[in-house]
């Protein structure tokens, strides 16, 4: 098994909250930003993002985002 190529761990964070304005991603109150979850695949993160976004459809200023945190941790893509 030591010869098996390891796949890099990916980290997708889903967060959201109420924005000040619809045209810019600035949260109204950072203390109210919701952490939905951390996911190892984009597909899992997208399902969580979609479910949470649909639950807040009545508030036009609520927005949820998928943050590709693995790119921030290792911007060179080496791990």
What does this 3D model show about the protein?
This protein is an alpha+beta fold. Helices cover 24% and strands 34% of the residues. It has two helices and four strands, in the order E-E-E-H-E-H. It has helices at 42-55, 69-73; strands at residues 12-21, 24-27, 34-39, 62-68. A hairpin with a 2-residue loop joins strand 1 (12-21) and strand 2 (24-27). The model has no long low-confidence stretch (mean pLDDT 86).
Any chance you could write out the topology, listing elements then pairs?
Blueprint: E1 12-21, E2 24-27, E3 34-39, H1 42-55, E4 62-68, H2 69-73
Antiparallel strand pairs: 1-2, 1-3, 1-4
Gross morphology is globular
Figure out the total of helices: 2
- As a percent range, the share of strand residues is 25-35%
Query: Can you write the helix and strand succession as a string?
Result: EEEHEH
Helix fraction, binned, reads 10-25%
Uncertain stretches: none
Query: How many E strands?
Result: 4
Report the end-to-end length measured between terminal Cα atoms: 19 Å
Q: Please summarize the sheet with the most strands.
A: 4 strands, antiparallel
The overall pLDDT average reads 86
Q: Find the structural class using helix and strand composition.
A: alpha+beta
The radius of gyration over CA amounts to 15 Å
